[in-house]
Amino acid sequence: MSDDTTGPERGTDGTDGEENRARTDGGEERSRSEGRRAVPDGGTGVALDPWGSATVDDYRDLFEEFGIEEFESIIDEVPEPHYLMRRGVIFGHRDYGAVARALANDEPAAALSGFMPTGDPHIGHKLVFDELIYHQEQGADTYGLIADLEAHSARGMTWAEIDEHARDYLLSLLALGFDPEEGELYRQSTNRRLQDLAFELGSNARFAEFESIYGFDGETSVSHMQSVVTQMADILYPQLDEPKPTVIPVGPDQDPHVRFSRDIARKSRYFKVTEAFASPEFDAAERVLVRRAHDEREAWAEDPETPRCGDAADWLRAAEVDSEFETARAGAVEKLENAGMEPLRPRTRFLDRNASEAAFEALIEAVPGEKRVFEGHVDAFDLDRDEAEELAREVEVDNGGFGFHTPSSIYHRFMTGLTGGKMSSSIEASHISLLDDPEEGYDKVKSATTGGRETAEKQRELGGKADECPVYELYAYLLAGDDDDFAERVYEECVGGERLCGDCKEQAATLMEEFLAEHQEKRAEAEELLADLDIDLDVDGSRRGIPGDEE
Ligand code: TRP
Ligand code: SF4
User: Fold this and answer.
1) By CB neighbour count within 10 A (0-12 exposed, 13-18 middle, 19+ buried), where does 344 fall?
2) Which ligand is closest to the CA of 494, given by its number?
3) CA gyration radius for the chain?
4) 253 CA distance to ligand 1 centroid (A)?
5) What predicted TM-score, i.e. pTM, was given to this entire model?
């Protein structure tokens, strides 16, 4: 298997040329390095490998390397932040602002995540279940899916195993409060609409992108590739009936999928809306300079009412600009010079990317106020950027397009294993399964590693290391629930030396035992709910796992 270790070879995240250009010239996407390749473990950076071992040593690297944004920077825009947000467990995002704003304004929004049914659902999955349920309670259309095609093709699970685990994931999600009347649950393999969408999206996915994003090569099975386009379809599925901001809550290992889906969503759009100043198309960095020229036109224009491009070129040639803008300056000056006597005048531009002739005609028709029509683009003088975006989407949808919003994501930290190191389904004592006997859960917590000192005296004197303690994590991620005071008290008492590990673990173990007992009771109740749902959990008979098709 060649696609599990060595991230992408080349520096693209599957963007079309446009995005790459935007990045090198100063970036339309704020995230300067969104397109950097995933670096394998042991390299200078971090690996983001969806099928590898999910550990992250330093979450800060993810901001630097991949352009994930800090969640902290946006939390104030979130109407009622979940405790996982308040406690920094959800640490990063892409474009979550779009979803937060929609929820705050009671506008349509969606949330979706998926689960590979490769083992029992455990307390790490509970984070994602909770994130979905939270968004559902906040008013988002919420989707939970079983990634059975992926489990079969990328992990070699048999259909019988998949059926069994799928049921367990769904029961836990329902038991924790997912409302299946309001939201939708599905499995990839039986969702025809999803697969039609995957097929459509596949025409915007190139093998070269699979190579660079996932390190796929000649040995990668076609089914594995198909499971990737299926995940792209999952991510965009909530927008099939109506485009809307959509958040994908996942671990950071899934970020390559998020980036790819964002690209595919952008590439499928009929029109691209940009800001323009004259007939030439400036790139992002050039645009910064031309905007400045326009802002300062009083200083150089013969008639500031109708500043001329040629005069702007003369001014810009001599203006002081940061050295990083030198290339942009050369480009902008040349384009302005060529435009000569043409007035420099701000406008909103609709570029025709994938529109049919009829759709482009419809757009021209729909633009209100003063407009100018060119080969391949329309300039609007009485529309601001947001209005233009909305119009572009409307016309696209009316003319048979998807009109996708670029999907957003939020990222949560991985839980530390109870035995230290990473929490792993394959290390029994490292994790607590949602199906564990309550007493077993109790015992696992009691035997967990802690951030405590060697002796009680030292602990009283120096305090415990709550930040390095898997037991404290249990409180913060799960056991304290919504009660911030409780979580804080545990923390303060620990680092202040008032809390000793024996008692602390006893308390945590008891809470865990209670949680598991209650959860399993609710799972039993959810059986009935699940039986009523239109989801086929017995596909085994109709399929054959082909021996050797797993990688
Ligand atoms: N690839 C995900 C995992 O390994 C599962 C998944 C499939 C998913 N489709 C998705 C996650 C869509 C989020 C959104 O767990
Ligand atoms: Fe961890 Fe509790 Fe010990 Fe602190 S007192 S180190 S939180 S087990």
Assistant:
1) buried
2) 2
3) 26
4) 10
5) 0.87
316 CB within 6 A, ligand 2: no
**CA 136 to ligand 2 centroid distance, Å:** 34
**Alpha-carbon distance 334 to 289, whole Å?**
13
Q: How far does Cα 132 stand from its chain's mean position?
A: 13
Cα 111 to chain centroid distance, Å, stands at: 11
- Residue with CA closest to ligand 2 atom 4: 494
Looking from the CA of residue 490, the nearest atom of ligand 2 is 7
Q: Find the largest Cα–Cα distance for the chain.
A: 84
Measured in Å, residue 240 CA sits from the centre of ligand 1 at 18
Atom 10 of ligand 1: nearest residue by CA position: 114
For ligand 2, whether the C-beta of 453 sits within 6 Å is no
Cβ of 231 closer than 6 Å to ligand 1, yes or no, is yes
Report the residue among 53, 94, 116 best suited for mutation to probe ligand 1: largest number of ligand atoms under 8 A from its CB: 116
Local structure of 15: helix, strand or coil: coil
463 Cβ below 6 A of ligand 2: no
CA distance 445 to 452: 14
E strands present in 283-366 = 347-352
d(CA 359, CA 383) in angstroms, rounded, equals 19
Alpha-carbon dihedral sign for residues 433, 434, 437, 443: positive
Q: Is the CB of 499 under 6 A from ligand 2?
A: yes
Kind of pairing between the strands at 90-94 and 69-70: antiparallel
* Confidence bin at 43 (pLDDT 50/70/90): very low
Residue with the smallest CA separation from ligand 1 atom 4 is: 116
Q: How would you classify the pairing of strands 69-70 and 371-374?
A: unpaired
For residue 51, the model assigns a pLDDT of 81
> What's the start-to-end Cα distance of the chain, in Å?
6
Ligand 1 site-directed mutation target among 254, 258, 260, most atoms within 8 Å of CB: 254
Query: Residue 399: CA atoms inside 13 Å, Cβ hemisphere, count?
Result: 21
Which among 229, 236, 200 is positioned nearest to 213, based on CA atoms?
229
As beta bridge partners, residue 242 has: none
Ligand 2 contact, 450 CB (< 6 A): yes
Residues 41, 53: Cα–Cα separation, whole Å:
10
**Would you state the structure tokens that stand for residue 426, as one six-digit string?**
């394959």
Question: How many Cβ atoms are within 10 Å of 160's Cβ, its own excluded?
Answer: 14
Residue 112's CB: how many other CB atoms inside 10 A? 26
Nearest to 409 by CA among 247, 252, 289, 525: 247
3-state DSSP assignment of residue 469: coil
**What's the pLDDT score for residue 209?**
95
Of the pLDDT bands very low, low, confident and very high (cuts 50, 70, 90), residue 53 is: low
256 Cβ closer than 6 Å to some ligand 1 atom: no
CB within 8 A of 215, min separation 6: which ones? 2, 3, 5, 6, 7, 8, 9
Please give the helix or strand (H or E) that residue 248 lies within, else none: strand 246-250
Q: Is the pLDDT of residue 463 over 50?
A: yes
Instruction: Give the rounded percent of residues in the chain with a pLDDT score beyond 90.
Output: 83
